[in-house]
Design a protein that fits this description.
Distance between the termini: 25 Å
Number of strands: 2
Largest sheet: 2 strands, antiparallel
Radius of gyration: 21 Å
Order of helices and strands: HHHHEEHH
Strand content: under 5%
Shape: flat
Structural class: mainly alpha
Strand order of the largest sheet: 1-2
Helix content: 40-55%
Length: 185
């Protein structure tokens, strides 16, 4: 693409007189745009995009109560207590935790740190956890294992609820973020 053509996205930014051109938005403008978000969506955006981990519990609590409300409305049959992580030991708490980690967490493989290969000391081998992609595998079997249930039960009862209803909460968050940034920037 030519430097100043309409197709070039960077040509829409202001031209810099220096040789180090930075096409990013100033952080003050992004903060102004983010001020138009609701408090929980702002916390989610800061958790996901600025990696401010201290907002994790606030967002988890919102997702937990939203999921609990959906479970009561649709009369989902679920276990009240399960063995699991501290503070997330209810079934709804664990499924809200799983959804939040998948939505706001990194896609980078934890074994190879996103490289796709492992150094053994003698030779380099393909990462066996991500199959060389460098990204975390998010399969239904892994989700079922996290929730301490059989893959068949997960697929039969919880796959659609998780993908449509619970992850749908984050789709609404992303839509609000996109709408506010589009309107204000």
């Amino acid at each position: 693409m030519r430097k100043y053509s309409k197709e070039n996205i960077k040509s829409l930014t202001t031209k810099s007189s220096s040789i180090w051109h930075n096409p990013r938005m100033p952080w003050e403008d992004v903060c102004f745009a983010m001020a138009g978000l609701s408090p929980i969506v702002s916390k989610y955006a800061r958790l996901k995009y600025a990696n401010e981990r201290h907002y994790f519990f606030d967002v988890w609590k919102y997702v937990y109560w939203s999921t609990e409300k959906m479970a009561k409305e649709h009369e989902w049959n679920h276990k009240k207590q399960v063995s699991g992580y501290q503070n997330y030991n209810t079934f709804i708490g664990m499924i809200a935790y799983l959804a939040l980690v998948e939505s706001a967490g990194s896609d980078k493989c934890g074994k190879c740190n996103g490289r796709g290969n492992l150094h053994t000391g003698y030779k380099v081998i393909e990462c066996f956890k991500c199959n060389g992609t460098g990204k975390t595998q998010r399969t239904e079997v892994v989700r079922a294992k996290f929730m301490n249930m059989s893959p068949r039960s997960w697929h039969r009862y919880w796959k659609t609820r998780f993908n449509h209803d619970i992850l749908g909460i984050f789709d609404v968050f992303e839509y609000e973020i996109h709408k506010v940034l589009r309107e204000r920037l």
